[in-house]
Amino acid sequence: MSSDLLLDIKNVCASVEEKQVLKGLSLQIKPGEVHAIMGPNGAGKSSLSNVLAGRDAFKVTDGEIAYCGEDLLELSPEERAHKGIFMAFQYPVEIPGVNNLYFMRSAFNAKREANGEEPMEAYPFMMKVQQLCGELEMNPDFLKRALNDGFSGGEKKRNEMLQMMLLEPKLAILDETDSGLDIDALRVISNAVNSLRNTERSFLVVTHYQRLLDYIKPDFVHVLANGKIVKSGDASLALELEEKGYAWINEEV
Amino acid sequence: MQVASFSPNWQALLDQPLISDALASWQKAARAELPELRFPSRRDEAWRYVPHRRVPKLKPYAEPSQVKPRYDHPSLEWDVYRLQCIDGVLISSDVIKGVRITPLSKCDEEQSRFVAHELSEKDAWIRLNQACLTHGFLIEVDAGIKVEKPLVIIDHTTSQVAKQCLNARYVIKLGEDASFDVIMHQSSDSDVLVNTVSVIDLGQRARFSSLRIQQMHSEALCFHQQEVIQGDCSEAHLGQFLLGASVSRDAVHVVLQGTEARVELSGTAFPRTGQFANIYSHLTHGVPHTSAKQQYRSIVHDKAQSVFYGRVHVLPNAQKTASYQHNANLLLGQRAQANSKPELEIYADDVICSHGSTTGQLADDQLFYLRSRGIPENQASALLVDGFAGVTTDPWKDSPAYDFLSDAIALRGKEE
Ligand SMILES: Nc1ncnc2c1ncn2[C@@H]1O[C@H](COP(=O)(O)OP(=O)(O)OP(=O)(O)O)[C@@H](O)[C@H]1O
Ligand SMILES: [Mg+2]
């Protein structure tokens, strides 16, 4: 395994509820790279995201995943988060009764504590989050509400981005964060992602639409179909897909 | 099961001193009746699941020669009035303008007639309370008086009265247009049995709230039966939080007998392993245009049991009744058990009544969401548990006891 990889997925097979969802998937991501994943509905894109984030129900039956040179599959979801993995959910979960701000501070401080840092007090934390809300053009009143409870689709996605900005991950997986966003929100969120781009931080962006990739320029574009990566290329592949759909790839493979 | 089978020396119970001359004949009537009375058992719907076998031998109350006030009570930091009662002895009581607080033993003839109110629910525990009263108060709020700070009633028992049976009665009467808030904190540090009866009488347009937090010793037994009688346009908020005791039953019967009377009830039963907690609510919509909203939850640790029994009665003339009831149960272990029994009896046709009940475990997708953000599993489940109880504590956000209540629930979520 080459040590300059952030993420090295080798031949991973995974299943959920007895259904095989990943069928020998390989993917390598270096620090600082942006990879886009496209592919038909049901291809396994969210399954890949969930496997990376550590959801129990998704069982890896074969293959290996190394993250920062470490065996990722040995780590609990919270440990993965502490080590810098962040998945923005395709369908963020509503949690009534749990205050959004309190949740964010718990998450933020859990990561700090795991990394041997002092937890941040309520007031400075509040200031920090409010500033990030500003960057995301998000009304800070959302912080007072219960986590994602009754949020509109787009509001949930913005709330996911707020968490990403806060937790400053090393590997951010955005599972269809652009779906359901209005045009302004798409711009705001793309700007937020771009502002986080640096030589250390990598992104895995799952999307159905080329338009997002106009804003967030990927280094690589992959097509995921039937549980594996069937084609990879540069940004131009996305344009080709937009034009031709996925059928031609199936013929090629 | 009769009192004799609970207690080999039940005669000693009945030989306890009477609380006052003014209440003597009323108490004696109950003493005459008691030996023949059958205590509620699994045959009685309202007491069905209560583990009667765990009711200990009833040992009479002996007033300790010395009682010390609690200097560590959380309410000392709140901006409230306080009434402290330790081991059945009144220690101190703040003076509140327009409010008379009279120990039952000092009630005059007229006051005693009110104290001797006959509850519409009748059972041997209520009779026992009447026969063997150990302590309690009549609190009268004059018409038009709006008491701006809540009264905290501290009812605490120490190991001095371990294993004894205490019977308390709190009678609260609000005149027309009065406004009054009570926070009732019941605690103990040993295995007592406390059998309490509360009677609340609300005059026209009176506004009342009672937040009851029960944190008894894990071996204690705690029965509480409360009757609330509401006059025209009165408003009541009642909270029941069962956060202790081995066996705990908290019953409330609200009689909406004045038009436009409103009541909101909320509460959480939170039994730990091996414990039993039962919330029983009974609403009688007796006249047109009354409304009620009930929000009850239970959180049940492994090998613990909760029971919610919610009865709504709408009498034939009570048109335009609006009554809403919801109960949700969260099971924290494979062998946790929650029973939920809504019972609607509606005899009027123009009413809006609804009820709903759910029982489930912590949701996997919620747990994963929190963990994927770095929140460790135990902390994530504690957050979800707090969040689950949140609907029942939210109505108490403005109470000075709110943080204390939330912390007490959070702590209970973490303890196991
Ligand atoms: N919990 C589950 N139980 C059973 N099948 C599942 C489960 N989760 C996913 N699947 C199935 O696995 C396959 C892959 O699903 P996945 O969500 O990964 O697709 P996707 O590529 O993200 O699709 P989309 O573009 O629609 O989001 C689908 O056929 C789906 O029905
Ligand atoms: Mg998906």
Provide a descriptive summary of the structure in words.
The complex is a heterodimer of chains A (253) and B (416). With 253 residues, chain A is an alpha/beta fold. Chain A is built from 9 helices and 12 strands. Chain A has a single domain (7-252), classed as P-loop containing nucleotide triphosphate hydrolases (Rossmann fold). In chain A, the strands form 3 sheets. In chain A, strands 6-9-10-3-11-12 form a 6-stranded mixed beta sheet, with helices on both faces. In chain A, strand 9 (171-175), helix 6 and strand 10 form a beta-alpha-beta unit. The model of chain A has no long low-confidence stretch (mean pLDDT 94). Chain B has 416 residues and is α/β, with parallel strands linked by helices. Chain B has one domain (3-364). Chain B has a 10-stranded mixed beta sheet with strand order 2-1-5-7-9-11-13-15-17-19, with helices on one face. The radius of gyration of chain B is 21 Å and the shape is globular. Chain B starts with a helix and ends with a helix. Classes of the chains: A alpha/beta (253), B alpha/beta (416). Residues 16-17, 19, 21, 39, 41-47, 57, 90 of chain A line the site of adenosine-5'-triphosphate. Magnesium ion binds at residues 45-46, 90, 175-176 of chain A.
